[in-house]
């Protein structure tokens, strides 16, 4: 794993750790922040694979997770559920930055944590298989 790939991976792990920490320790739970960090963890995990597979043209400076997945679709098998997860998580990267843009409930946090964790685990396994 190159230094750049490792940096993206470690940032993804940190965001996922922050989301889990906020979920476990804060009351009341900051739903927007937890969902935001889940989106960030998934985004940085996917960008880990973009860097890993050396897609040309530099790193896309976009937060649309489906778009990012499409950047590597010819390099790695992507289960359909990850596209669904991407669609669910993407709004948390931008909309939660503005008051009253999204209505979030505890179930959204639970889903966001699950989706981000599964994407992160998929990336971890993918990189481990290729190395």
Low-confidence stretches: none
Strand content: under 5%
Topology, number of strands: 0
- Report helical residue fraction: 55-70%
Globally, the shape reads globular
Q: Treating each run of at least 4 consecutive H or I residues as one helix, how many helices?
A: 5
* Overall SS class: mainly alpha
Query: Oligomeric state of the chains?
Result: single chain
The average pLDDT value, as a whole number, equals: 92
How would you spell out the order of helices and strands? HHHHH
Describe this structure in words.
With 131 residues, this protein is mainly alpha-helical. The mean pLDDT is 92. 36% of the residues are buried. The chain contains 5 helices and no strands. It has helices at 3-25, 31-52, 65-70, 80-89, 106-130. It is globular, with a radius of gyration of 14 Å. Helix 2 packs parallel to helix 5 (106-130) and helix 4 (80-89) packs across helix 5 (106-130).
Overview features:
131 residues, 0% strand
């Amino acid at each position: 794993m190159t230094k750049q790939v490792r940096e993206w991976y470690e940032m993804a792990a940190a965001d996922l750790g922050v989301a889990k920490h906020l979920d476990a320790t804060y009351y009341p739970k900051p739903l927007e922040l937890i969902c935001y960090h889940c989106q960030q963890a998934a985004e940085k995990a996917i960008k880990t694979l973009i860097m890993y597979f050396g897609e040309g043209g530099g790193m896309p400076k976009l937060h649309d997770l489906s778009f990012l997945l499409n950047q590597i679709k010819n390099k790695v098998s992507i289960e359909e559920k990850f596209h669904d997860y991407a669609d669910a998580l993407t709004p948390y990267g931008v909309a939660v930055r503005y008051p009253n843009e999204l209505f979030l409930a505890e179930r959204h946090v639970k889903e966001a944590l699950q989706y981000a964790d599964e994407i992160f685990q998929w990336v971890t396994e993918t990189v481990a298989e290729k190395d």
